[in-house]
Write a structure and sequence with these properties.
By secondary structure, the chain is an alpha+beta fold. It contains nine helices and four strands. Pfam families: DUF6904.
Amino acid sequence: MIWLENTPNYAGAYLSGDRNDFVSLNEAIHLVVGEEGEYPGYELVRLRILNLCNELNQAAKGQKEVILVPNGLERMNRSRLSIDSKENNMYFRIRILWPELLFLGFVLNDFIELSAKHRQHFWDTTPARIRLFQSVIGEWLENTVGESKFRLLKSSLTPSFIGYYQNFVTQYIDHLNIEFLKMDKEKRLANVSIAAKRVANKDAKYIKIKRQIEKLAVKDGMSPNTVEYPGSYPEDIQW
């Protein structure tokens, strides 16, 4: 089963699981996001989620961090049960920035519903696997921000309508990521709940970035979808 842990400096979270966990989540996400151009207005959002899939795929191949976790079976028990097992289980781990992780959790609601027409039956495991991932994010969000702050965020976890992230300016997530990384450890922890609110609501900051991207697109004769956010990520992230 996948789980989350905060990175040492609260830049984001470690997503951990075994190979089957990562392969299963990767497969489910690919199934719900569909093919290129299948859902108009979701091109950039889809690519953003596929970045996670690429990380999961690399991790499942052993190309990311590997951690060993004691399996809890004492030598005497393994002998008694005739189990040929080592003392540690091997898991894989990737790192995701907090604003990015929250965005993935929110936007997957849209894709679950958009892909519903392809669902074979109500017992299909695909949405269940996605919901499991979302539940892990939600649980760790509550653990991180505390019960009182999480209570104020609960309503945002259930979207008022599907399609909220259609034509969403994903450069805004780059803005949130970069601004989050400028903070020190304590300020990051204090701002996780604020990041969640900003991802869930198209507030004045979102509108400002959206207009900035649109102006750059007009200036350079490009589509807003091809404009890169003008800010830059630090070369060395203090996770």
